[in-house]
Amino acid sequence: MIRTGRQYIDSIRDGRAVTINGEKVKDVATHPMFKPIVDIRARIYDLQHEAATRDVMSYEADGERFATGLKLPYTQQDWWDKRRATDAVFEDVKGVVTRVGDETVGEMWSLYDGQDVLNEVDPQFSENIVRHIDQVIKHDPFHVSANTDPKGDRSKRPQDQDPDMLLHVVKETDAGIVVRGAKYETAAPYANQAFTKPTIANWGDSQLSDYAVGFICDLGSPGIKMICRTGFAGRAPAEDYPLANRFDEVDSLVVFDDVLVPWENILFYRHTKAAMFIRMTLHRYSAYAFVQRTLKVADMMIGAALFNVRQTGLDKQQAVQEKLAEIAVYREGINAHLTAAIALAEKSPGGLLMPNQSLLYTGRVHACTNLPRMMHLARELCGGQICVTPDYKAFQDPEAGGWLEKFYTVSEDWVADDRRRLLAYARDLLNSDYAGHRLTFQLFAQSAPFAHLAAVYRNFDWDGALDFVKKSAGLSDKVMGKLKRAPGDSAVVKYFDGSRKAAQ
After folding, report:
1. DSSP label at 355?
2. Are residues 139 and 263 in the same domain?
3. Do the beta carbons of residue 161 and residue 152 sit within 8 Å?
4. Do 129 and 258 reside in the same domain of the chain?
5. Which residues pair with 255 in a beta bridge?
6. In sequence order, what are the beta bridge partners of 254?
7. What sign results for the dihedral spanned by CA atoms 119, 121, 126, 129?
8. What is the pLDDT of residues 335-388, one digit of tens each?
9. What is the pTM of this model?
10. Are 365 and 377 in a shared domain?
């Protein structure tokens, strides 16, 4: 079943406790700091029903339609469909949003691959993850991920400080477990549910831990309190900050004040092996959608920079072209990693098709680590006017407006109003408080940079390089131990082996 935008908006009017700027929010859907992004989430639901986008945003199975983004991926076509659906969203809303559900549900697919681990704990947990994935597909909720704890003093074990610094179980009941603590999560105030899980593996040298718990949380549950950072929407006119006023995804500290989680919503509990598995594999699917978002951010930077240099005639200069080309290389590097990760995708332990892990994780590092420099290059190309241009009201002033009309008109093709709009857009993309927030968010949204590199280290084929050098240098077989592998790039070898088997 696919929901409508209206159904989604009604679903978050459940009496949830949300605070922003010290104000208790009566209705998240209409509050000025939430309404723009809620409307976009509602628009995404409506795109699933409209004739022009229905077949891109949804698919049919057993006489019903379901969201493309939530579909379990078994084939390359499934991934191309997902990529196309995400692009359709960006084209329609004319911007980039990160937390829209399709990226976070992939974290549940990672646990789907770990059913053997869950069965070691309790077969019921394995049944729970399968059932919840099925329910997400059938009921189309806005699903997010709750990972990050306040953490406290990270030199200490959780047991050796305020126990609530990390989410943990305080009591078991016949109905379920009672949890206490907090999580930081983007979009939680206007989402339906969250896959809640630990972020650390320091369990205190214990096989069992009350901190090793993962579950599906109904964000309207009693005892949940959401304390939000100040939103960017409504703080300044949309004419001056067109991105912040539409695409700000409000982050929240989600407090769990003795929240009951029913047994049927628990995906693992106490067993540290399951908690460590999900931390090691959490982004094997969700990183794809995350990196795809950055691809569109690169397009926004290129467009803003290129328009700025073309209108002033600087695009013919070699130095300018070199800077533009560097951003284009960045963009195409992201594109290449995304494309190759699917072209060389591999079967997961659970039978799903997961993007090639080495290519996906190296693509994420490429996208995130180079983003600050790309923003700097785009800022250089846009020039200092993104920080000195007067605001919209000045352009409307009868006296000042005349002077601004004169000095901001570049040519017949670039009149003052278009130039003002472009500079406001570039400022909000590259130079505003919203831009700074988005940059930091991008660097940490899927764990810290060191964790990104750790994922690359775990998934790269180190043996391939060792095997080649062994042969090239004439080393004995002893240096490789018992390792036996086919020559060549392992992903390519797997691809051709699979193709031959399929042909047979």
Report:
1. -
2. yes
3. yes
4. yes
5. 182, 225
6. 183, 226
7. negative
8. 999 999 999 999 999 999 999 999 999 999 999 999 999 999 999 999 999 999
9. 0.93
10. yes
